[in-house]
Amino acid sequence: MQRNRMWELVAEQRLLLAGLLEGLDEEQWNADSLCPGWRVRDVAAHAIAPATTGLGTVLREMIRTRGDFNSMVFFDGRRRGDAPVEQIAADYRRFATSQRRAPGAVGATPLMDIMVHARDISIALDADYPPMPVAGAQAGAELLWRLPFPFYARRKLAGYRLQASDASWSAGEGALVEGPMEALLLLLTGRNAWQGRLDGPGAERLRLES
After folding, report:
1. How far apart are the two ends of the chain, measured CA to CA in Å?
2. Which of 94, 144, 173, 210 has minimal CB crowding within 10 Å?
């Protein structure tokens, strides 16, 4: 996917999420997201953080957590999530077109990140939400299959063949897992919420193992 098109989609996805967040009540903001230990407000604040955060902040957090990436992300998300929810929601419109990347975020990472975290929120709240753009989900899947960190998708899904039903994309070898590109993207990030949308012998095996 071309760089300019990716950033156009990032802006679109941020504005979509802004619309959802602006309609949430206090209970929904404080509800659990799909991410264990993360409230909706934490995920929302985390997902817009790359547009508002410099390298210095990241380095300070890494020092504070002694280089533990997962701890750094978690505690930073909780800290940001304690901000007023009006500010969190407003940041999505204020920084919709920002092209700042989180340190180390390569390729389609910004697009993958906002699409996946929007589902961490919308699925957890059982909220109506538009589907991911297929081309964007495919770009995210291609990235995650290629990069080992932080999801280790290729290693964790060894022995499976992933096949998109709505795009010319496949990866891996083994038991077939077939479904829409957006459901495969969530699978690649370790999320099981859309496993029911996947078909094939491999999908059945994954459901038994999860």
Report:
1. 32
2. 210
Distance of alpha carbon 161 from the chain centroid: 22
- Determine how many CB atoms are found less than 10 A away from the CB of residue 44: 31
Mapping DSSP onto H, E and C, the string for the chain reads CCHHHHHHHHHHHHHHHHHHHHCCCHHHHCCECCCCCCEHHHHHHHHHHHHCCCHHHHHHHHHHCCCCHHHHHHHHHHHHHCCCHHHHHHHHHHCCCCCCCCCCCCCCHHHHHHHHHHHHHHCCCCCCCCCCCHHHHHHHHHHHHHCCCCCCHHHHCCEEEEEECCCCCEECCEEEEEECHHHHHHHHCCCCCCHHHCECHHHHHHHHHC
State if pTM tops 0.90. yes
73-102 b/e with 16+ CB inside 10 Å = b?
bbebbbebbeeebeebbebbeebbebeeee
Assign residue 59 a region (left: φ > 0; alpha: ψ between -120 and 50; beta: otherwise): alpha
- Residue 52 — very low, low, confident or very high, per pLDDT cuts 50/70/90? confident
pLDDT digits (tens, 9 = 90+) for 105-131: 999 999 999 999 999 999 999 999 999
Q: CB under 8 Å to 37, separation ≥6 — which residues?
A: 74
Cα gap 160→144, rounded to integer Å: 15
Q: Which residues pair with 32 in a beta bridge?
A: 39
